[in-house]
Write a structure and sequence with these properties.
Blueprint lengths: L1 H87 L3 H14 L4 H8 L4 H11 L8 H7 L5 H14 L5 H6 L7 H14 L5 H9 L7 H12 L7 H10 L11
Helix pairs in contact: 1-2, 1-3, 1-4, 4-6, 5-6, 6-8, 8-10, 9-10, 9-11
Length: 259
């Protein structure tokens, strides 16, 4: 009987040990699970923190772009104001400073010329045409061809004159259009003076048509000077003789080197 009691006691002890072992195992597993969850949370947090600076940088850059563009636009507007105000000034120093701003930055300052040519003050438009007459301004044709159609006759004449001073390439066709009867005579007269120096057979018919519509004897001579330059003959004030000469003229073959 004593032996049986000892065996039962040993069995109970073994079962207690088994239960304790189970609890220990379960506790270890629970700790592992908690550790895994904690590690996962830390990884997600660290990953989010690692991505945030890059995304924040992109977002910040995106916000700065409109601000920078706005600041640049404001700077341009301020410079336009300063230059146009300087060009309109009666002070020679102010005008020289404004002109120098355009010349030093050309062609990046071409927008200043556009703004000046569109200015409501005629003095500003005339002043910027004098700037375009400077040899530091490369290829001013685009701006000058806009200015020749200015609503103010004085500005239009000045633009044609500067065009004659600066270049003769690729402008004859545009100048011929200015001989239309609807254009003011001072502008047409300046165009004829220019064609007297750069005209070719392309302008003959237009000049002849303008000559035939002349109702003022003083306006005949500017036409005949152009015809004389291109044709190489002189018929004076004889409009009919000029008409026959123009009709008989045949354009030279390419490469012959004549007008």
């Amino acid at each position: 009987r004593q032996d049986n009691r000892e065996e039962r006691r040993d069995d109970r002890g073994d079962r207690r040990d088994d239960r304790q072992d189970c609890r220990d195992v379960e506790g270890a597993v629970g700790v592992d699970k908690r550790d895994c969850k904690q590690d996962s949370r830390q990884e997600r947090k660290s990953g989010a923190d690692g991505d945030r600076p890059a995304s924040d940088a992109v977002e910040t850059a995106a916000k700065k772009e409109p601000v920078v563009a706005k600041e640049e636009a404001q700077e341009r507007e301020q410079l336009i104001y300063e230059v146009t105000t300087g060009l309109a000034s009666k002070d020679e120093v102010d005008r020289a400073r404004a002109s120098g701003t355009i010349l030093r930055g050309w062609p990046d300052t071409s927008y200043l010329v556009d703004a000046a040519l569109a200015h409501q003050d005629r003095c500003v438009r005339l002043a910027v045409l004098r700037v375009l007459d400077n040899k530091s301004v490369t290829d001013p044709r685009t701006h000058l061809l806009k200015a020749v159609n200015d609503k103010d006759v004085v500005v239009g004449v000045m633009a044609v004159r500067v065009l004659r001073h600066r270049t003769s390439k690729g402008v004859e066709t545009q100048l011929i259009r200015l001989l239309a009867p609807s254009k003011p005579w001072p502008v047409r007269q300046e165009v004829l003076r220019t064609l007297e120096e750069i005209g070719t057979f392309r302008c003959l018919k237009t000049v002849m048509a303008s000559l035939e519509k002349c109702d003022d004897a003083q306006r005949v001579k500017p036409h005949t000077r152009v015809l004389k330059y291109v044709l190489g003959v002189n018929h004076g004030k004889d409009v009919e003789a000029w008409r026959r000469a123009v009709d008989a003229y045949r354009p030279p073959l390419p490469g012959r080197g004549s007008k």
